[in-house]
């Protein structure tokens, strides 16, 4: 089960320190997060991205500069399958960014995608009409009704102004629970950063935005 990070601010902030803290989250995870990593970030109003199949803690991290929005993902591939850069999140499509962490068993949704996370992204985009908060709420309801077991489903869909998020799990809250930190830079992460206060549990079983 992967690790993910989201950070947004009204003023530009350095990507490097956040990526360094996220690297430690991935490296210290009780489950292996070394099947590649990726980031997406806003630069002059456009999404830029970088993906790698190396473990993030073994890779040489480029200098990305500053941004007002950052999404990062470290992958733990299900059954160690499909390890290739094309399957590494965040996914970018239609000026949206998507990142997922979790495991769904017995899923019966019809949507295109190489892996389950991409199929969920496609499914949600197909359900979207005008309001992403409603799309996430109704889309999750449809996915859960067509899934035998949702062990965990944590994801976010981000546009240029905000991210629409969802989190649920049926076991191991110490591992699957997302955490948020408010302030000038709003942060959502799979685990709090080492040595940093101010983190709180993210909402569970309901859509929320950041």
Give a verbal description of the structure.
The chain is an alpha+beta fold and 210 residues long. The strands form two sheets. The chain has a seven-stranded antiparallel β-sheet, with helices on one face. It has a five-stranded antiparallel β-sheet with strand order 5-6-7-8-12. It is built from four helices and twelve strands; from the N terminus they run E-H-E-E-E-E-E-H-H-E-E-H-E-E-E-E. Strand 2 (37-43) and strand 3 (46-52) form a beta hairpin. It has helices spanning 15-27, 116-127, 132-145, 173-176, and strands at 3-14, 37-43, 46-52, 66-74, 91-93, 96-107, 147-158, 163-169, 179-181, 185-189, 199-201, 208-209. The radius of gyration is 16 Å and the shape is globular. It has a single domain, classed as Glutamine Phosphoribosylpyrophosphate, subunit 1, domain 1.
Explain the layout of strands and helices:
Elements: E1 3-14, H1 15-27, E2 37-43, E3 46-52, E4 66-74, E5 91-93, E6 96-107, H2 116-127, H3 132-145, E7 147-158, E8 163-169, H4 173-176, E9 179-181, E10 185-189, E11 199-201, E12 208-209
Antiparallel strand pairs: 1-4, 1-10, 2-3, 2-4, 5-6, 6-7, 7-8, 8-12, 9-10, 9-11
Helix pairs in contact: 2-3
And the CATH topology?
Glutamine Phosphoribosylpyrophosphate, subunit 1, domain 1
**Largest sheet, described in full?**
7 strands, antiparallel
Number of strands: 12
Q: What is the helix fraction of residues, given as a range?
A: 10-25%
CATH architecture: 4-Layer Sandwich
- Per the principal axes of the C-alpha atoms, what is the gross shape? globular
What count of domains describes the coordinates?
Answer: 1
Low-confidence stretches: none
Task: Please state roughly what percent of the residues sit in beta strands, choosing from under 5%, 5-15%, 15-25%, 25-35%, 35-45% or over 45%.
Answer: 35-45%
Cα separation of the termini: 22 Å
Count of helices? 4
Report the C-alpha radius of gyration, rounded. Answer: 16 Å
The CATH class turns out to be Alpha Beta
Let me know the average pLDDT: 95
Helix/strand structural class: alpha+beta
Strand arrangement within the widest β-sheet reads 3-2-4-1-10-9-11
């Amino acid at each position: 089960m992967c690790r993910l990070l989201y950070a947004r601010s009204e003023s530009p902030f350095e990507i490097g320190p956040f990526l360094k803290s996220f690297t430690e989250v991935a490296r210290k995870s009780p489950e292996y997060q070394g099947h590649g990593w990726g980031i997406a970030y806003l630069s002059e109003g456009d999404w830029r991205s970088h993906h790698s199949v190396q473990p993030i803690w073994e890779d040489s991290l480029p200098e990305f500069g500053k941004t007002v929005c950052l999404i990062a993902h470290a992958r733990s591939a299900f059954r160690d399958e499909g390890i290739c850069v094309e399957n590494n999140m965040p996914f970018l499509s239609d000026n949206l960014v998507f990142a997922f962490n979790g495991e769904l068993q017995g899923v019966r949704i019809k949507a295109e995608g190489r892996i389950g996370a991409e199929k969920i992204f496609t499914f949600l985009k197909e359900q979207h009409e005008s309001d992403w908060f409603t799309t996430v709420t109704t889309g999750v309801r449809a996915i859960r009704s067509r899934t035998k077991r949702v062990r965990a489903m944590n994801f976010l869909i981000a546009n240029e102004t905000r991210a629409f998020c969802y989190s649920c799990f049926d076991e191991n809250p110490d591992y699957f629970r997302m955490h948020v930190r408010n302030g000038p830079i709003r942060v959502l992460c799979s685990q709090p950063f080492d040595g940093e206060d101010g983190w709180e549990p993210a909402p569970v079983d309901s859509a929320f935005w950041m």
